[in-house]
Amino acid sequence: MPFEIPADLDPALAPLAFLIGDWAGVGLGQYPTIEDFRFGQEVGFSYVPGKSFLDYESRSWLIDENGQKVRPLAREHGYWRPQPDRTLEVVLTHPTGIVEVWHGTLDDAKIELTTDAVARTATAKDYCAGHRLYGLVKGDLYWTFDMAAMGKELQNHLAAQLKRVRA
């Protein structure tokens, strides 16, 4: 699906413009404390004219072997804030009682993020650090998430391939 940089996009967002729109696809989840699983995901990146951040929302659900939705999984909402030195600040919130501050770098269509801070409510799961990679490859958005949680070291938890469904 073709993409054009919106005329009213704040110039500070130009390095992230390739993300704007809606994406959907499937991925794989794993971690030592759970059984491996397949998931479906929808991700949206939008902007407010004149503001230098992207609004981000993601929702996912467990899927069966036929790709049918079984039950909801994770949701997250946040803001992606590019900086003049091509670094990136991201703030994410989760309805499970977790708030994350991420710092990272932007290199063309590749983004690498690492948690700088993780705050949890008293009832949130034991999660203490994360690392994410995002990359645009032949028009698809690939991403992976490594997690340190439940007393385990940082290791892969999620990976997905998303296709643009709306620019």
Automatic annotation (TrEMBL):
Pathway per its UniProt entry is: Nitrogen metabolism
Q: Which Pfam families does the annotation name?
A: THAP4_heme-bd
The family database entries (CDD domains) matched by this protein are listed as: lipocalin_heme-bd-THAP4-like (cd07828)
Note the SUPFAM superfamilies from the entry: Lipocalins
Task: From the UniProt record, list the reaction(s) this protein catalyses.
Answer: peroxynitrite = nitrate
Going by the entry's taxonomy, the superkingdom of the source organism is recorded as Bacteria
Q: Where is the THAP4-like heme-binding domain?
A: 13-164
Q: Which InterPro entries match?
A: Calycin, Nb(III)_bact/plant, Nitrobindin, THAP4-like_heme-bd
Q: Where in this protein would one find the motif GXWXGXG, according to its record? A: 21-27
Q: Which amino acids does the record list as binding heme b?
A: 33, 125, 157
Cite the EC number: 5.99.-.-
Q: Name one GO molecular function term.
A: metal ion binding
Cofactor annotation remark: Binds 1 heme b group per subunit, that coordinates a highly solvent-exposed Fe(III) atom.
Keywords associated with the record: Heme, Iron, Isomerase, Metal-binding
**Required cofactors, per record?**
heme b
Domain topic, free-text comment: Forms a 10-stranded antiparallel beta-barrel structure able to accommodate a hydrophobic ligand in its interior. In fact, this fold hosts the heme group, which is located in a wide surface cleft.
Q: Which family does it belong to?
A: Belongs to the nitrobindin family.
Please name the HAMAP family in this protein's record. Answer: nitrobindin
Q: What does this protein do?
A: Heme-binding protein able to scavenge peroxynitrite and to protect free L-tyrosine against peroxynitrite-mediated nitration, by acting as a peroxynitrite isomerase that converts peroxynitrite to nitrate. Therefore, this protein likely plays a role in peroxynitrite sensing and in the detoxification of reactive nitrogen and oxygen species (RNS and ROS, respectively). Is able to bind nitric oxide (NO) in vitro, but may act as a sensor of peroxynitrite levels in vivo.
Can you say what this protein is called?
A: Peroxynitrite isomerase
Q: What species is this protein from?
A: Actinocrinis puniceicyclus
